[in-house]
Structure formats: structure tokens, C-alpha cells
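Before drawing any conclusions, I needed to go through one protein's amino acid sequence and its C-alpha cells, quoted below without any editing.
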Amino acid sequence: MRTFIEDAVKNFFHETLSVRCETYGKFPPLKVYSAIITLSDELKKYSFSLCMNDATIKLISNILLYEENPDEEVKTDLVCECANLIVGSAKVAIEEANDGKLLQLSPPEYQGYFEEEFSKVFEDKLYFKVHDEFIMIGVESVDITETV
């Protein structure tokens, strides 16, 4: 799963936005906007929390919307849309790698703006340096049990 997400993040920033993006070690605590989106099959559900600081969202807003100072509503929409595009891209790649086995993608849900360090505990965290800014994707998985 990690490789699919890494590739999707890099593809989004390199190919869609023409912005430098690379995996990165853990970065210092930042104030972040966060959105969560899930990807699931009949056995497992993965939740991905995309966290971006204000400068990253402004960079994306400037590239996609030609807006240098987006308002809070635009920032909220952008973090959700970025989560949707990144995880949606990973979904397609996973389905292709698994002989077309379909996955369900939830709509992204805005989690909020966190003034303090986003301290939620995740099974895995993926860090990226985007241009001169940072993003993080936290991953959690849950085994889905069938109820009879």
C-alpha cells in the first residue's frame, strides 16, 4: 500500500502540478489542514489522513486556481480534493495490480485545521517535501469482519 500512495503523491505533484516532490524524513510539527478518505475491499479498510500546512495549500491554490490567498472555504475544498486525487490515483493503480479487483473509495471528509501538532496516532506515516513545504499522509487499516 505504501508504494502505491508514494507513487500517487509524487505523480500528483510532479505530473499534475509540475512541482518538485520527494519522500522525506519526519519534519517538525506544523499547523495543518487535514482531510480523511478511505479505500476498502471486502477484507480491509484503509484510512488516509492527508495533512498540509497553509503554505502548501496556497501553492496548490496558486497553481490550480490562480488564487494566491485562498479563503478558508477554498483551503478546505483543496485539502479534500487533493486527498481525493491522490488516493483515487492509488486506487486505480492497486486495482490494475490486482487484476481489476474493485475497491471502494469514500468521499473525502475535512477533519479540520490543527493549530497544534497533529498528534493522531497512525500505523504508518508518509512524509513528503513539496517544493519547500511539507505534507504528511497518515495510514490506518482495519480488518473488516463479516456479520452473519
